[in-house]
């Protein structure tokens, strides 16, 4: 059973002066347009983001959807397989599928 007090986290990426990549857990609700994030298998896409590197496979209506480099990966799909990095494209409340509900 899911804990109602648990805050959803997303992996935010930051690059140091030497170009080293650092990953920090961040509250999904704190994501801003332009933040660099990483999403991988077993995680939920937190908000719409443009994929810069990698590929994600999600399921919609029993069919696999593939998000590749250059695509906008849309929330709130659960990632079946893959790993991708990209820039947050919209705030959570403005996500493509959030508008349909």
From TrEMBL:
User: Which residues are in the P-type ATPase A domain?
Assistant: 23-60
By its UniProt entry, which SUPFAM superfamilies does this protein fall under?
Answer: Calcium ATPase, transduction domain A (SSF81653)
Q: Which Pfam families match?
A: E1-E2_ATPase
Classification via Gene3D superfamilies: Calcium-transporting ATPase, cytoplasmic transduction domain A
Q: Which InterPro entries match?
A: ATPase_P-typ_transduc_dom_A_sf (IPR008250), ATPase_P-type_domA (IPR059000)
Protein name in the entry: P-type ATPase A domain-containing protein
Q: Which organism is it from?
A: Rhizosphaericola mali
Q: What is the lineage of its organism?
A: Bacteria, Pseudomonadati, Bacteroidota, Chitinophagia, Chitinophagales
């Amino acid at each position: 059973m899911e804990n109602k007090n648990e805050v959803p986290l997303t992996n935010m990426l930051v690059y140091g002066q030497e170009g080293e990549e650092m990953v920090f857990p961040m509250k999904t609700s704190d994501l801003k347009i332009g933040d660099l994030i990483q999403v991988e298998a077993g995680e939920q896409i937190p908000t719409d983001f443009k994929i810069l590197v990698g590929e994600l496979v999600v399921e919609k209506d029993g069919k696999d959807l593939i998000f590749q480099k250059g695509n906008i990966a849309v929330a709130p799909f659960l990632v079946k397989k893959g790993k991708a990095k990209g820039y947050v494209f919209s705030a959570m409340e403005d996500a493509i599928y959030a508008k349909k509900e």
